[in-house]
Amino acid sequence: MRILLICLLFPFIASAQGFQVNLQGQVQQGMASAGTALMQDASSLFFNPGGASFVNRNEISIGTTFTIAKGAFLEHNTFETAKTTSPVSTPFTAYGLFQIKDSSRLKLGLAVYTPFGSTVQWEDGWTGRFALTRLRLLSIFVQPTVSYRITDKIGIGAGFVYSYGSVNLQRDLPVTQGTTENSDGYGRVELDGTGQGFGYNVGIYVEPIPQLSIGLTYRSQVNMKLNSGTATFSVPTSLEENFPDGDFVSELPLPQVATLGFGVHPNSKLDLALDINYVGWKAYDTLAFDYANNTESLVDTKSARLYENIFAFRLGGQYALSKSLRIRAGVGYGISPVQDGYVTPETPDANRFNYTLGLGYNFGDHFTTDISMLYTTATREDTNLETNLSGTFKVHVFAPGISINYKF
Fold first, then answer.
1. Nearest of 362, 259, 247 to residue 16 by alpha carbon
2. CA 200 from centre of chain
3. Residue of 289, 345, 284 lying closest to 2 (CA atoms)
4. Burial (CB count within 10 angstroms: exposed 0-12, middle 13-18, buried 19+), residue 283
5. Which pLDDT score is estimated for 117?
6. How high is the pLDDT of residue 15?
7. Which domains can be identified in the chain, with CATH numbers?
8. By CB neighbour count within 10 A (0-12 exposed, 13-18 middle, 19+ buried), where does 337 fall?
């Protein structure tokens, strides 16, 4: 039962770093998600609230990314293999950036984005089914923002963050007495609930010379609180008293992220961007669950996670082929916060490279579209200390995305 509790909210973590695929802006996604010091559109509300005041026009932007993740697992003892059958997920972004008049240094904005939203599903009967069979997650961040250009070279900004999330987790139980829902005779448990949290996003943007821009941002830790989760068990009648349906509560920290970014502009056609992220994963040292109905088989738990603070690096470039057409490319490298012994089938995290391409096109003076493609892969060999699940995970992620932007 303990591994079920450990797994419940893990994908919320993945949205912040872990096995992160950063999907908060198509322009930046084409450049490996480097955008802290390169202000181009309304997605600057996320990447650097301080630089949003340097975006010269009002803008509304809507985008989505089609995230296709394929996973496989090779069990070390039996050499059995299993694959995921996960559907395509579609995390989205919606940005609105406005100023009262053309000469105003003040910008107001609203950012709505999904830092993580997907379904992870493993094929029936796989060797890790007692850890996980299916997980569906949706998290939405809403961020009203104020940005102000203090001088022609310096801007500051801040946004309040409200986070809402829902999760549905299913796994098999190793009980086989009597008749159960599963065709192979095992029991099943489903955890379903919603959570919320609060935080903030602040930044400063500086252009010391026309060829260089610098950005510094801080996204605070967000403590996701799941106050009304429901656990539903399908077990033999003789075990129903041991696994009563009921409520549970939990809390999970999403780590703070500090980013230093540089933008270099060698000429009017070429832009280069570098972001260095420092992610405070050490806050995630323990995961605790409190069940309303405790039994000898269903007890409250505290499980050590012992994550480590990490760095991530993102380097990208953009080149204007013409007044209307821009091409982009980038590469990123992320260090996993997951120590050996804590790898799970939800997000089998590992150190990894991200490779991206992008394209932007202007349709006249008001409409633009941006598209991007991200590819990343991770391989991790581990034996989980909680479940003794031992093997090699391999994951491939393809993420094509598109946004439509209206400027006025």
1. 259
2. 16
3. 289
4. middle
5. 64
6. 35
7. 2-407 (2.40.160.60)
8. buried
Exposure pattern of 54-92 as b/e (b: 16+ CB <10 Å)? bbeebbbbbbbbebebebbbebeeeeeebebebeebebb
Distance set, CA 303 to CA 6, 143, 172, 288, 293 (Å): 7, 32, 20, 6, 19
* Token digits of residue 285: 């040292």
Contact 206, 232 (CB under 8 A): no
Q: CA-to-CA distance for 184 and 75, rounded, in angstroms?
A: 20
Return the structure tokens found at 77: 């003892």
* CA–CA dist 16, 310 (Å, integer): 12
Q: Residue 87 corresponds to which tokens in the numbers above?
A: 């559907």
237: left (phi over 0), alpha (psi -120 to 50) or beta: alpha
On the CB side of 183, how many CA atoms lie within 13 Å of its CA?
Answer: 2
Distance CA(242)–CA(233), nearest Å, equals 10
141 DSSP β-pair partners: 113, 163
pLDDT along the chain (408 residues), means of 10: 37 39 88 95 97 94 93 89 89 94 89 82 86 84 97 97 88 68 70 90 97 97 85 85 86 88 96 96 78 82 79 97 97 90 78 95 95 94 85 91 96
Report the distance separating Cα 95 and Cα 62, nearest Å. Answer: 7
